[in-house]
Amino acid sequence: MVTSELEKITINMPPVDLGQIDLLVREGFYQNRTDFIRTAIRNQLNTHADAVRQTVVRKELVLGLQHYSRRDLEALREAGEMLEIRVLGLASIADDVAPELALEAVRSVAVLGAFRASPAVKKALADRIQST
């Protein structure tokens, strides 16, 4: 996995839980705290994989990476259509997309994961971005 594909999260944990993680790291079960946490998250995602798949289908989400270029949005605008971005993963709008074009081509943004766009485009679409 490329570092640019990672999103940083911060968690608060009780000292006893953190101590147990440190013990497992020290005993060689995991390389470090991050390795432990990633493994725990993957295990939980595997446990709930069927529920995730069913929800993706039911809510008509794109699973994975979805990038929208200036050309994509211009084509939508010219066709008189508007985009409803619905992604589980990463959705991005190219840096060369002007806020005006985004307003003319994007009806709504619903992303479970990460949404990347220029600050100006995010500001322009602020009222169309659904909180997750």
TrEMBL record:
GO terms for biological process: regulation of DNA-templated transcription. This is CopG family transcriptional regulator. It comes from Rubrobacter marinus. It comes from the Bacteria. Gene3D superfamilies: Met repressor-like. InterPro entries: Arc_rbn_hlx_hlx (IPR013321), RHH_8 (IPR041088), Ribbon_hlx_hlx (IPR010985). CDD domains: RHH_NikR_HicB-like. Pfam families: RHH_8 (PF17723).
